[in-house]
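User: Continuing from earlier, I have the next pair ready.

Assistant: Great, send them over.

User: Here they are, in order.

Assistant: Folding the first of the pair now:
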Amino acid sequence: MDLFDEEVFVFTPKGEVKELVKGSTVLDFAYSVHSKLGDTCIGAKVNGKWVTIKYELKNGDRLEILTGPGQHPTLDWLKVVKTTKAKNRIRHWIKTNTNIAETVEKGRQLLSARLKRFNISLEAVPEEAVKKVLDLNTLKEMDDLLAGIGSGEFSDVKIANILRRFAGEIAKPEQKTAPAEKRILKGEIVVQGEYSDIPYKFAKCCSPVPGDEIKGVVTRKGISIHRSNCENIDLNRISTPLVAVSWNESVSSYYTCRMKVQAKSRDGIVNDLVSTVTNNEAYLISVNTTGTGTAMLEVELAVRVKGQKHINDLTSSLKKVKGVAEIERAG
């Protein structure tokens, strides 16, 4: 699974790089800069050409957001954006500034009708099942889910099927003897427990590789695989379920790793670091340097490696490059 197939890199008018998930739109970009910019966005100039808020971003695009004083979020915007940050801001604005009771009621009727086909009453669905669906879609309240169904953001068919499955699991009588925990092999990862049928992806914040201790976090898009020491899965900061996951013993792919190198500034230092990466059979993705013109240089390398042992070997080789003072794994 190639993380860089799931990202898009674009530029602000000042040349600053913004990294968003693949499929992000002009509106996602606007909200990534500032919530008020997103709230009033009417479109953008992309590479000098005017486009709508629905324009899907491509690698290398340079954006200038256009705003209008009378513009504001609508429920339809939830179908336009891809990122959780944008969706949460839009929902917050709508709940704060409009009356969405009709949309919530429409969603309630659609979901109730769909559940009725399974001889299930919406009111009878266990709270635990509802909470699982809300967690899966990174929502806080049932009204958010119903409004999403009423506006077309969520499929009533899909939500009804998930609620039906979760409700059925909760309603099952306890076994006298505990059944063996379900373990599903999904490529590089073994997923255990009730979330074993949900797809996964590797978190960009910590970029886990084989050999790392890992945990899974249930998100709207599936299971996000993090390193166990990732600060973003601090139990005090997240409310979504954690999933027991482990590496498949036979993994053989390459994985993204980011490394920060502190080195004394000298001519050719970056070239020497790049050569060391390639000589260690790792694949270089990107190089970013800060501190140019000063005594010390920080070089961030994004590389593709086979696992933790590969990282250790590469780190040992990089430490031998003249001028290198310190190396640490980023994220």
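And the other member of the pair:
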Amino acid sequence: MSSTLYINHNGNIEDASRPLFNASNRAFRYGDALFETIRLMNGEIIYFEKHLNRLRKSMELLGMNSHADLTFHNLYLSIRHLDQVNKLKGNGRIRLEVFRNDGGLYTPQTNDVSYVIEALPLENREYMLNENGLRIELYTEIQKPLSRLSNLKSSNSLYYVMAGLHKRKTGVGDCLVLNTHNRIAEAISSNLFILAGAKVITPSLQEACVSGVMRETVIEMLRSEGRDVTEGSINVEQLLAADEVFLTDVIHGIRWVGAFRNKRYFNLFSRKLLQQIKSLHEIKKA
């Protein structure tokens, strides 16, 4: 890894250690920003089109204008350039953040945007299932409201910050965030799936979960195989009755849950599913 890391700010390569913004930055002031966390793996920017489609839809929802640089071609070249200058060797975590330009209080003066791309190294060069199952718990103190904003990857992340503090306090592997109906929305940075018999269930977007790229990928893969996949609601009773529980995100792929309260889970299904995901990328490489 390079001793100096670089970022891309509006098309310019800059030293990541140097300040970029002043106090009027709207992402800092109001969380008026969106981001995508993207996996660079073995030289492949995986699920790149899904990320850009989600970003485009999210920008439209927030009334942000498009930016000439935010095309597949330009962003692909920008990420590969950061891969080279940061010496990631084709493997890393990419964060693409888009924020409304300075001006105004709550009401913006412009809908034009700027962007920053960060590229950080990752140790694992491929998806690997966690050796020990995660112990999870509920975070119940603050609930996530049901709205279209809840599906976005936005810089308004206080629900996850508070759940993360609870995770650290309790020493568990992850915490589940509840919506305002006391049903499970998601984990701190992952979507939730349960296996109940032959049925796979995950919270629907109406349950206030983030519209995760790996979530979408897993649903599409399972349905293409004829699996019974339900996007609905999950409560604590269903979680306790499940055969398997696993979390999905693009950085880790799949992480299996080993315990919730006194319940213990298996990982046969999640292990096979992760292998299928890995096989898809091996086929694309070949």
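Worth noting for the second one:
The chain is about 30% helix and 30% strand. The domain at 6-121 is CATH 3.30.470.10 (D-amino Acid Aminotransferase; Chain A, domain 1).
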